[in-house]
Each structure stands twice: as structure tokens, then as C-alpha cells.
Amino acid sequence: MRFKMNKLAAAVAATMGVSAVGIGTAQADEILFPYVVASSTVTTLVSTINIYEDYFEAPAASQLHYRYYYKNGSNAESNSATCSEVDERLPSSPNDIVTFDVSGHFGTDNLGIIFEDVATSSNANYGSKTFSLLNITLPVRAFLVVDNNDYLTGAGLFSTANSVAGEAVVLEFVTGAAWGYAAYNAAGIYGTSDDSPIAINAYDFSDAVETAGEVIADSYVPVALAPFATTGGEWTTKFFVTPIDAATFDSSGNWSAPGNQLQSNLSATIRLAVQDPSSATQDVMFDRDELPVSGQVPQVVTCVGAVEATTMLSEGALNRVPDGGWSNLVVSSGVSPNPTDEAVVIKLEYNPSSLEVDTDSSTSSVDGVVNNAIWLRKGIRESFPVPASSSTPRVQIYAADLDINSPAPEGVTYAQ
User: Fold this and answer.
1) Whole-angstrom Cα distance, residue 99 to residue 171?
2) In whole angstroms, how far apart are CA 244 and each of 16, 103, 303, 357, 393?
3) pLDDT tens per residue, range 396-415
4) Of 164-173, 231-240, 254-263, 357-366, which one has max mean pLDDT?
5) Are 395 and 384 in contact (CB under 8 A)?
6) In the beta sheet, which residues pair with residue 90?
7) Which residues of 208-246 are buried (b: 16+ CB within 10 A; e: fewer)?
8) Whole-structure pTM value
9) What is the pLDDT of residues 279-316, one digit of tens each?
């Protein structure tokens, strides 16, 4: 399959400050860890995998670039605060996996690395720099972008390789509760240079290049809501929100430019809403007897944050649904100066002690902590416009080397 770069792709490449001439197939890739957290009782264990594929006739990057956008101290609990940034290029090697504690609670004398001794590692030389970049004033919330794009001094921006992967475990280490997720690796949008595919959307994690519904954009995502602890129940439900910079489209609805996640003040709004287009004022949720309840309270998150579900209902509405029910999580545009209408949202349900699962049962209790997280997803690339005069979608999926979910939006030319 051949990919040809049109004027749009060339223009985007030019804005990135790199040349599209004579570029080979050096590996380049980025992954997003949308939620990283640390406190006196919680930390996040991150694993990064540096994938070597001789298919690309190039070695794996000798280092990975870690970028955190974080809030800490008194700002950690503020959903309106902007983020600070810290980054570091840290050693890696072909086929290496490194697991580390972002805050340095574990692995303090081992560069923050766990499960291996850096002093005896024979293939990966981790040097002397710590991997615990969030060993700062706690608590801290952050999102993390890991890439190898500055390998080969910029040429690595242009490639089709899925060459980095990762996982995160959020660990409550006092009681031993944990939950986790796989890092989000977005697809590429491609042109070509000398018949070599070039990606023109580095650091783009928008809905336009999601591969499995990772980003909520223009969708109602059904969510179950367990009985609220604040009204006599035993569950706390939180939504961890990371606003995502959206790709843009021109006046004709064609793809115009990628998103750029390397920003500290992206802002999105989330709300709970019953999907009823005929209603001028949508209800907030259904109770467990299918009765709608009004009283929406939208919440704005800048950069990264946590929203407790009960704060998304008015006090009157909350009193009417002590046993929970269900609703839809909706993402809409945030506030100035940097609003976006896309976000990654993870729902967390937890109980810090023994749990009464069913009050009607004599064997209903659960000893210990309950800690369950769900990455909310629905649809794929729903932000792409669909022509009003045609039923033909604007987006087709192409396989570009190992990037098997590459979108081909109208406005970028491809030739098979």
C-alpha cells in the first residue's frame, strides 16, 4: 500500500518544524497514561515496554521521553487549577520493560525501579537518573506521555510503528487495593516521503485517532451508579477526567490539523444526563425504578482531575436517589482559555472497609476493600463529521505497517 502526502499533509509537517525529505522508517511512537496519582497511601506503578521490530530495519530507541503534566499539594484537589510540567529522557534498550513507582515510595534506593536491580541489569543501563519524577510534595494527580520521538533527532516523528506500550497499576498500599489500565496508543494519520509513510500527528490522542473508543466526544456513555455513601449507601463513585485536545476540521468538514496533548490547561466539562432529545432540560439520572430525576450540576476539569458523582447532582436530586441508579456520562466544551469537548474518563467505585452488597441477603457482606475502575468507552471516532447529503462515512480504516487502525479522513490523499 502506498501513501501520498498531499498539500495539507505537507503543510502540517512544515508546522512541526521538520523536513519530510529523505526520511526512513525509524521507529516513533507515543503513549498516554491518562491518570497517574500519588499520596501518603496511594501510588502508581508504571510499566513501559520498548518494542523492537526488525521489520522496520531500525533498533529500538535507546531512551524514552517521559512527560508529566501534574497538579500537586493544595492544587491536587482543585479541578480548576492548571498543571505544571516535568520531563526527562531516561535510558531504555531493545525489548526492555521497566516498572517503576512514579512517586518513589517503592524502589527508593533503586532509581524508583521495582522488580529488578539496576546494579545487576546487563542489557539495560539505567544510569543514575531516577524514574520517580513525581517524588514531590504530595498528593499529586497527573497524566503522563511517553515517547521515543526525539530518537534520531526528529526523524523519528515520521514512522508507522507501534513501538512503545505500557500499563499502570494504581496501588492503595496501606490496605492492598489496586486497579489498573493499559496505556492508550493512538493511531497515526499518514502522508509519504519518498514512498515511506510519515505520521503527521505526533502527540495527538484525540477521538479522531482513537482505536477502541478511548476518548469520549459527542457521546452519551451509560454508567451504573451504586448506592451513594453520602446518602446512606456504602459506595463512593468518582470520575477521573483528562481533557483531550481535539483534532480540527475545516469549514467543509474535512480533517484539518491534529490534536496536541502536550498542554497544561486543556479544559472539559462533564455532566450526568438522561438522553431525552425531546426534553428542553434533560434529567440527571434514573433511579432504580426507572423514574427520571432532574438536577444536573456540570463539573469543569482543567488538565486532569477527579469528580465525585454526588457533586454532579443537586442536593435535592441526590436525596431522591439514595440507592443510585443509572445515567449517561457526557463530555462537552470546557472554559477559556483552552476549552475542548473531548476527554478520557475512568469511573472508580470503591468502599474503604467491609461492604454490605445486598441488604436483603443474610450472606451479603464482603470483607476488605472494594476498588474497581472502568475506562468509559463508546463508539469510535464519533467526532468525524458525516456529510449531510450522503450516508458514506468520512472515515475509512487503513493498515499502515503495524498501525492497524489508521484513519483516512477526507482531505488526506491515499493511493493503494
Assistant:
1) 13
2) 19, 24, 9, 35, 23
3) 666 666 677 777 665 554 43
4) 164-173
5) yes
6) 64
7) bbbbebbbbbebbbebebbbbbeeebbbbbbbbbbbbbb
8) 0.88
9) 666 899 999 999 999 999 999 999 999 999 999 999 99
Contact 59, 50 (CB under 8 A): no
Which residue shows C-alpha cell 491536587?
A: 76
* Residue 199: strand pairing partners: 190
Place of cell 521538520: 18
What is the Cα–Cα distance from 302 to 334, expressed in whole angstroms? 8
Where is average pLDDT lowest: 63-72, 254-263, 296-305? 254-263
The predicted structure's pLDDT at residue 406: 78
Q: Which residue type is seen at 306?
A: A
* 3-class SS string, the chain: CEECCCHHHHHHHHHCCCCCCCCCCCCCCEEEEEEEEECCCEEEEEEEEECCCHHHCCCCCCEEEEEEEEEEHHHCCCCCCCCEEEEEEEECCCCCEEEEECCCCCCHHHCCEECCCCCCCCCCCCCCCCCCCCCCCCCEEEEEEEECCCCCCCHHHCCCCCCEEEEEEEEECCCCEEEEEECECCCCCEEEECCEEEECCCCCCCHHHCCCCCCEECCEEEEEECCEHHHCCCEEEEEEEEECCCCEECCCCCEEECCCCCCCCCEEEEEEECCCCCCCCCCCEECCCCCEECCECCEEEECCEEEEHHHHECHHHHHHCCCCEEEEEEEEECCCCCECCEEEEEEEEEECCCEECCCCCCCCEECCCEEEEEECCCCCCCCCCCCCCCCCCCCCEEEECCEEEEECCCCCCEEC
104, 177 Cβ separation under 8 angstroms: no
Contacts of 390 (CB under 8 A, 6+ apart): none
- Residues 93, 63 contacting (CB under 8 angstroms): no
Cα–Cα distances in angstroms (integers) from residue 276 to residues 47, 269, 279, 311, 314, in the given order: 42, 19, 6, 22, 19
Contacts of 21 (CB under 8 A, 6+ apart): 193, 194
Residue 154 CB coordination number (10 Å) = 16
Q: Which pLDDT band, with edges at 50, 70 and 90, does 232 fall under?
A: confident
In single-letter form, the type of residue at position 38 comes to A
